[in-house]
């Protein structure tokens, strides 16, 4: 505050000529009484600003481990561990199969050599050349058995699990994180082969995840999820109905990978797909309009081959029957079914069996 110079001005509050002080902030004149009131008003405003600051600080402190993105990372971690376990189990089985085949081959050679040795010994029919030949055979077989190159473990040059990054929208800086995400590129070449992974209910997986079989009891839902995640482009996967009770009662569709895998998953708001009894599910709503969806389950037969296409760019899912040459399309609301998408299959009849065919 600074004192007024020569001419007296009216107080801006009481409009009297008793103005003695001018506020440097608002450049208004106040009398002695109201200059105190003006300072009190400024103090109240300052208290309000401090309160807003304290509330903002509390909001900042709430930014912690319950962030939704961290929950997505936790879900990814569980799914990725399951995929790693499946891949390791497949590798173990393949390795054991290779070792068993090698063992059988080596045993056969040993048996043949033993027969040759005994028969020659009993007949007293052998020479130095035979001894050299048998010695070389044993030496060669020993080298093969002890060779470290009997089997090789080769890492794929293009992994299915790719490195992801956390992008800071404020600074636009990319911070690399040692996390890998099993997301598909724009299209699905043969190396990105769909397989069954997660199961819930009376179902078993065979043939390294390519075959799903309902094990009973009947009329119990068996749930299966695929292992690939779809977030852009279009991806087609083929299925053969190897065993199928009629009328057809198998659900094939798409669900958000962010949705929990649980009972009645096909009825979820994040799921779309095709079931038996001409039922089409769209985000929790069931319809039996055959003409609208060009979908008639009473025409489906055993050994039919079905193609499901996840068209992420056009936000739709398609189901094509190769024998009937019929195509059904469902539009997907990405607000209800956010990316990445994931295959969902549900079987109802005991003995139903579906096989995933290799990509074309």
Rg of Cα set: 37 Å
Output the strand order for the largest sheet. 6-9-18-11-12-13-14
What is the typical, i.e. mean, pLDDT? 81
Biggest pleated sheet: 7 strands, antiparallel
- Assign an overall shape: elongated
Q: Which topology of the largest domain does CATH recognise?
A: Jelly Rolls
The helix tally amounts to: 4
- How many DSSP-defined strands? 19
Distance between the termini: 84 Å
Low-pLDDT stretches are 1-5, 170-182, 187-191
Specify the helix fraction band.
Answer: 25-40%
CATH level 4 superfamily of the largest domain: SPRY domain
Spell out the blueprint of helices and strands.
Elements: E1 2-3, E2 21-22, E3 29-30, H1 32-62, H2 68-123, H3 128-146, E4 162-168, E5 173-181, E6 196-200, E7 203-206, E8 211-214, E9 222-226, E10 234-243, E11 250-256, E12 271-274, E13 280-282, E14 285-287, H4 290-293, E15 305-311, E16 316-321, E17 326-331, E18 341-347, E19 353-357
Antiparallel strand pairs: 1-2, 2-3, 4-5, 6-9, 7-8, 8-19, 9-18, 10-15, 10-19, 11-12, 11-18, 12-13, 13-14, 15-16, 16-17
Helix pairs in contact: 2-3
